[in-house]
Amino acid sequence: MGTRAGIVVTGTEVLTGRVADRNGPWLAERLRQAGVDVAAVVVVGDRPEDMRGALEYLAGSGVDLVVTSGGLGPTADDLTAAVVGEVQGRPLDLDPELEQRVAAVVEELMSRRGWRADPEATAAGVRKQAMVPAGATVLEPVGTAPGLVVPPAGARGGPVVVVLPGPPSELQGMWPAALAAGPVREALAGAAELRQGTVRLWGTLEAQLAATLREHQAGLGGLEVTTCLREGELEIVTRFAPQAQPAHDHLVAVLAEEYAATLFSTGPTLDELVADALRDQGLTIATAESCTGGLLVARLIERAGSSAWVLGGITSYANSAKEQLVGVPEEVLAEFGAVSPQVALALAEGARARFGADVGVGITGIAGPGGGTPDKPVGTVHLCVVGPSGTEARSVRLRGSRTAVRERSVVLALHLLRHLLLGGPPA
Amino acid sequence: MGTRAGIVVTGTEVLTGRVADRNGPWLAERLRQAGVDVAAVVVVGDRPEDMRGALEYLAGSGVDLVVTSGGLGPTADDLTAAVVGEVQGRPLDLDPELEQRVAAVVEELMSRRGWRADPEATAAGVRKQAMVPAGATVLEPVGTAPGLVVPPAGARGGPVVVVLPGPPSELQGMWPAALAAGPVREALAGAAELRQGTVRLWGTLEAQLAATLREHQAGLGGLEVTTCLREGELEIVTRFAPQAQPAHDHLVAVLAEEYAATLFSTGPTLDELVADALRDQGLTIATAESCTGGLLVARLIERAGSSAWVLGGITSYANSAKEQLVGVPEEVLAEFGAVSPQVALALAEGARARFGADVGVGITGIAGPGGGTPDKPVGTVHLCVVGPSGTEARSVRLRGSRTAVRERSVVLALHLLRHLLLGGPPA
């Protein structure tokens, strides 16, 4: 089974869905890189009995390490340190030096922002944050909250618990110190390399792939294969120990042969393929978006260094903006309507001309929920990509909510770009 | 304690963080609306022993209902139905009529996309999806996978388990049928109304709020108060039974008095406040963004019906685009540099003029990780909002990653808009 870990994410705001959890995925990936398999991520609210239940469940499932995030603040609902101390058999003690360090941080923060608060009440919050389970290792605060490494007391056994703050930047900043702590190093001493491979297909039905995997089952020993269908992309991920590398290579060869028409990547994501192609081919790009309203250009710019190839984009939501800012001819708008292949082409050409870019992208459509007609129902989207080597266009009727239609349109535009720049499976 | 539920999200792609879970939060909010408190969300991979462990943990914590998402596909790693059937004491049986209905759906899907697959292998996948725990209620497929309602067999007791597919659109489409199923109605029969209130502060330290809450502790009986600091916004959420409404109203009054300078909402989100203000005041808006590259305009357009007030935006990443498309004077760029308050103002005015909008927003900055200088380090961002009633501007040095800098800039721009349109706490 190898070395295994569990993650406990605390916070009613995460449990109730008001805030998306970013710590669970981040920790899972870091643990994988350390050769540790994650058994489960448990999200609980700020209630001591629920947190205790989650810690006991993970201990019972035999993990070597538990990482918690959140519940280290000064408010009464922040109780992770107390509950972890209790579960690990280590009662809380005030660490006076830590108290001074936290007080200094809080004071600096408040004076910088010009805030005032009742000093006694603030001191009570600071004291709470300086309560440490006896024998635990303190991880120095990145924000105001210190982290903790809490091994089980005496002979009671069970996983080492690493307690980290909830804000992602603080948690991430504290991770190296957590990994370096003695009890964590010991818990992970047996962790072996865990490899991961990814194959991406565009336009293959999951049932079809299931048949292929069943057919070749015999050759897949030692691989954990999982498949995930998302926005039309079928992602096949294998996780394996180094000795199963030949089985992995065999699977990739089988997929490359059977799905030559849809396999577009044996690793990089769609976004990486497009960005690398633009950079490697020395091309610049600009967009003119209507229904996706800036989502495509925002996604193209996500990548650091993208200013070398992304010149910009125009979100031309209003018809007047399509005409005046992108230069879509008035008569094209009048004859075919704003949602038409002709306008998508004019937007792509306009973006290219206005920004002086090598590649232009145009997207126009009806994201809904309103605005649909019998002729052009909600979900109708026209996309066009124009570059030095030619033009790619697609017209589709997408299903789903406003958000889904916008996201799927962006994915489709990226596949059009991929095909224009790199060939391979059509969009 | 009331009626409680647990959620199990399955899928190695979610557990490893490759895909963000959207089902847990969605289900948690729907359950709350039904008066059900969620005790925990557990994410596990596609391994039978981990899924079994999660189901037993939740059953042991005394929940009345468990909802699972994912693991209903035709591939070998889809094993939710089998594990749930086993835990509930209900062995799987083939449902031949369901098999026919699933086969018809798969056939239609494949013919529509022009895909072919080995018929025998496809049939095996279909048969797998038509295996139903004895005595379970089948929820008709929205995609290809049927859902299930599986009560515990005989006298064994424990929660009713609702098994739903992983794709969010399928899960959401199936939810009304799940709620209407007899065993679910029985499990939720005792659920009482669970109210929720939200107060939002902009620029208050969590330690300060903690002191206030401690001071007024006596008057907060019956309220579950949680606080969450996110991107500078301190969100205070209370959950309570109807009889605790006076305690809730008291808390809101206390906060309104003590935090008059930072309280900007007793309900709506920042995005809702800005959108409603634009709509109610009959104003249109346009943006010119550099480092945020379309994120602000994409967020403004997220809301359905936003075409009534959002005219569009220009992502002017390159200097030439700032000049030619937004009309930033060449000499302003030369004298002050692209990242300057002067250029932020020129971008806001340019967006307003080019789109003919009532309100213009300009953002320019250095998101990093490269591009910083001693004078203008990474995180330097200048923002400006120009409207009929005046101008708001801010220059900040934000901390964090490229993504964090971009997101915080968008939040700050929205607060500038809020203050320009509605007054209240400054941005």
TrEMBL record, chains A, B:
Domain of life: Bacteria
Gene3D superfamilies linked: CinA-like, MoaB/Mog-like domain
MoaB/Mog domain boundaries: 6-186
Membership in a protein family: Belongs to the CinA family.
HAMAP family (alphabetical): CinA_B (MF_00226_B)
UniProt-recorded name of the protein: CinA-like protein
UniProt organism field: Geodermatophilus obscurus
